[in-house]
Design brief:
The chain has 232 residues and is an alpha/beta fold. Helices cover 43% and strands 19% of the residues. It has one domain: 3-Layer(aba) Sandwich (Rossmann fold), CATH 3.40.50.300. Strands 5-4-6-7-3-8-9 form a 7-stranded mixed sheet, with helices on both faces. Strands 1-2 form a two-stranded antiparallel sheet. The longest helix is centred in the N-terminal third of the chain and has 17 residues, at 42-58.
């Protein structure tokens, strides 16, 4: 079981894992650990994500998942099927499951700065509690629920790089998951440009289309706003 290994290690010893390479889909993440992951099915997504989640828990790291509240039961069942002891993980605060209504859409509204601040607080709080680092997995379907302008989503993803791409200190990786069945092709292309690393076809790779946030945000200022809409 995943947490048996963690329970055998003292919290102080877990600090030695801070500098250990972070693996995702068989590759190593560096300070550019802001990843967009495109999947066609939930099975495809969990095949990639579960080993990443398991590894973090085994190393005594914190795992924070932002999920569609309607899929909470399914998410928990998939974690349990991987051998993760959910009750223990939740009780000792090593695993935190957040509904996107409380993170990105409080009172049904999205605020870029408040959302980034909330995640920064979660990360800092985890560090204060002794977790060597925090791994984030976020279902980006919330953006379609909010009926955002496309520019608002892209501004958020690009601005997030200032928070997640940090040199020095521990890397706190964040994986933003996108269901290719729900998002239109033009949005997928633009989202890709806001992440230095990308998972396509179940393979993690450095993103050659990544545009640094300062440059991308400048381009965005001159773009006509359009409303996000579901594909199909």
């Amino acid at each position: 079981m995943v947490l048996d290994k963690y329970e055998a290690i003292s919290r102080s010893e877990s600090h030695t894992e801070t500098n250990r390479p972070i693996r995702l889909d068989g590759s190593t993440l560096d300070h550019r650990a802001h990843v967009c992951a495109f999947f066609n099915t939930p099975d495809e997504a969990y095949q990639v994500l579960l080993p990443f989640i398991e590894e973090g828990l085994e190393l005594g790291q914190k795992s924070v998942h932002t999920i569609d509240p309607r899929l909470r039961v399914d998410h928990c069942e998939r974690l349990a099927s991987a051998g993760i002891r959910l009750d223990a993980a939740l009780q000792n605060d090593q695993l935190e499951l957040l509904d996107w209504s409380s993170t990105h859409l409080p009172e049904g509204k999205f605020d870029l700065h408040k959302t980034l601040s909330k995640y920064r607080d979660i990360r800092e709080n985890a560090t204060q509690k002794g977790f060597p680092l925090t791994r984030f997995v976020t279902d980006m379907g919330w953006a379609l629920e909010a009926e955002l302008e496309a520019n608002a989503l892209l501004e958020y993803e690009s601005t997030a790089n200032y928070q997640w791409m940090q040199h020095g200190g521990p890397v706190h990786p964040v994986v933003c998951t996108y269901d290719l069945r729900l998002f239109t092709a033009d949005i997928i292309v633009d989202v890709m440009r806001t992440h230095p690393m990308v998972i396509i076809g179940g393979v993690l790779r450095e993103n050659p289309f990544f545009v640094p946030p300062g440059e991308f945000l400048e381009q965005l200022r001159n773009r006509k706003p359009t409303r996000l809409k579901k594909a199909g």
